[in-house]
Write a structure and sequence with these properties.
Blueprint: E1 7-11, H1 16-27, E2 31-36, H2 39-51, E3 56-60, H3 66-80, E4 85-88, H4 103-131, E5 134-139, H5 143-146, H6 152-172, E6 177-184, H7 190-193, H8 197-206, H9 215-226, E7 237-240
Parallel strand pairs: 1-2, 1-4, 2-3, 4-5, 5-6, 6-7
Helix pairs in contact: 1-9, 3-4, 4-6
Length: 246
């Protein structure tokens, strides 16, 4: 129970990697607030967290809307009393080749993946600065490090998250706040479920460890970065990809 007495916000926390992170942090003693736009899934995951004996709040928040984010953070402070951890996990893909990608595809991915991370980080940082302690972890991607055909928007958004992470780390370090990113490779989630078996096989052949990752692999990395074990680590990108990008 290394996070006993702490409170965490996990964005996009109702399913997939976000859900796995939220459940693991709760098992380690943290109270959890989830930001998500899917009310039904949000309710289900919030119920799972409460079954673990933790205080849990599920809030319908669009992370691209600054006012909703600020109000959501205010509600978390009212309900849980503090915010020690922020995990920026909310993200989407809208793939397409560069010359066929329209403005809406570009804007939507950048709005959620990058602007959403900025808005949530800014809102939470104000509180963390007052308490002179905090842990911020943003979910980037190896695509933000190495690129990927058909994902110009996604790659740009995740590269932006990495740049944002390093800048925030430098700005907040003197107040006891760390800010790091995790760059997952190909993880078994709804995003990879849509791939054909042939495509999955090609991916597995390209990964030195020979298999796609599990959401729990990313969750364990997040737990490490928000724990006291990582108190002297900031501005870093932890790659969790089975060796694909090395």
């Amino acid at each position: 129970m290394q996070l006993e007495g702490q409170a965490a916000i996990v964005t996009g926390g109702a399913r997939g990697i976000g859900r796995e992170i939220a459940l693991l942090l709760a098992r380690e003693g943290a109270d959890i607030a989830l930001f998500d736009v899917n009310a039904q899934t949000l309710e289900q995951t919030t119920g799972e967290l409460r079954q673990l004996g933790r205080r849990a709040e599920g809030l319908v928040v669009d992370v691209t809307d600054g006012e909703q984010v600020e109000q959501g953070v205010g509600k978390v402070l009212d309900k849980l009393g503090r915010i020690d951890i922020l995990v920026n996990n909310a993200g989407i893909t809208k793939d397409g080749l560069l010359i066929r990608m329209d403005d809406a595809q570009w804007d939507r991915v950048l709005d959620i993946n990058l602007k959403g991370t900025f808005l949530c980080t800014r809102a939470v940082a104000k509180h963390m600065l007052k308490q002179r302690r905090g842990r911020i972890v943003s979910i980037a991607s190896i695509v933000g490090l190495i690129g990927n055909p058909g994902q110009a928007n996604y790659a740009a958004s995740k590269a932006g998250v990495i740049g944002l992470t390093k800048t925030v780390a430098k700005e907040l370090a003197s107040r006891g706040i760390t800010c790091n990113a995790i760059a997952p490779g190909f993880i078994k989630t709804e995003m990879t479920d849509v791939l054909s078996e042939q495509a999955k096989q090609r991916l597995q052949e390209a990964i030195p460890m020979g298999t796609l990752g599990e959401p729990r692999d990313v969750a364990q990395a997040a737990l490490f970065l928000v724990s006291e074990a990582a108190r002297y680590i900031t501005g870093q990108v932890l790659v969790v990809d089975g060796g694909l990008a090395m």
